[in-house]
Amino acid sequence: MKFIVRTLFLVLCFPVTQILAQTQLLTHWESKAPMPAHRSNMATASLEIGDTTWIFTFMGIDSSKSCGSGIRLEAYKYNTISDQWYTIASVPDTEGRLAASASGINGKIYLIGGYKVFNNCNEFTSPRVDIYDPLTDTWSQGDSAITKMDDHVQIVYKDSLIITISGWSQSTNTRRVQIYDTYLNNWTLSNDISGPGLFGHCGSISGDTIVYLDGVRIAGNFTLINQVWQGIISNGNPGSINWTNLGIHPGAKVYRGAGFSYGHRILFTGGTNNAYNINGIGYNNQPSVESGRTWGYNLQTGLYEDYTHNPDSVMDVREVVQVGQNKFFVVGGMEANQKVSNKVSVFVIDSVVVAREQAMPMGLTVKINPNPVKDRARVEIETDFSGKCEVSLYDLNGKRLANLYSGMLQAGKKSFQFSADDLDLAAGTYLVRVVLAAQEVTTKLQVL
Hints:
The chain has no helices and 41 strands. With 448 residues, it is mainly β.
């Protein structure tokens, strides 16, 4: 069943001295044809072949979530135009792997690292680089990594270099940043990250700026942390990266979520706040709970932003695949009750809305109840100050459709009703804009 949920992001709460971002994202989620198999903690990547973008998935754990036989070697491809899946040549290894990463560059997929889990549940981190050629459906092997790793962050730089950041390495975390040259088929080292070694962290790159966050450090035991790090590549040379600690982020800690980028934003989706190994049951023996939160860090403003929640909340995803300029695919993972999923969800950025630069509103709260609405709803305003108030309804193109309220508003609570039927609103997403004494809040209204 298809679904669409839209929203205008709301900037998270910060002190009044900070400034709202000058652009805002209108986003929604869609569902696509499910995978032919249930898989989690697999590697995913995309390639443009002719006029079609294909998504490729490799290995991962199946619904049994068992050691040995539950770790798979199979691989699949997905046609983003026809919405169809196909089986391709399996990964040419002796056993399947978890927590590997894949990158598509210049017509080939580079599958790097990951760890094997044997029948006795012993584990082995792999240094392998497996290279898939979709035109011939064949595999070759690249130069092995200098330091083997799994559960790492993997990014592409200048359409030729693959950078891996930290990760687990057989018996402990590594702080190494490694660079694989896809043209020369060799590895070099950058300077180590300045923070602790991690596994299960997530991140991405925009231009020369890398951002990664959270993951598990070793501090006597496995400890999931809240910490954001930024790396600036020096003069186009990834062999020299200047790392900066950006502090903590709002919201829950993230383990095995996925990072991706859009313009000057680094975005994150999915994951959990309770670290685990292969089956979704935490190191603390508590079940891990998946998250549908989708949010980001704006490199221009230094602010965090929340976007539309994924209705198909998942953890154990680690990679998001970009298709075109504005679509980002989340494939598989673990859904509610640690069930291995075959679902495919797409985060779509509809448009960028230019907003008036303004001080962050304080003492002004706006809610629509109920929301979504079939007919009648209330706009509820709570304010610490009085002033002239205008409440207006807009479509997503910025066209003003109706005035919902106009007049003086006293400090305190105000609630008034409106009818979607009386306004002749078709099913869809609208924006409600409240302006009170030069302060402004815009929120979304979903009409069913």
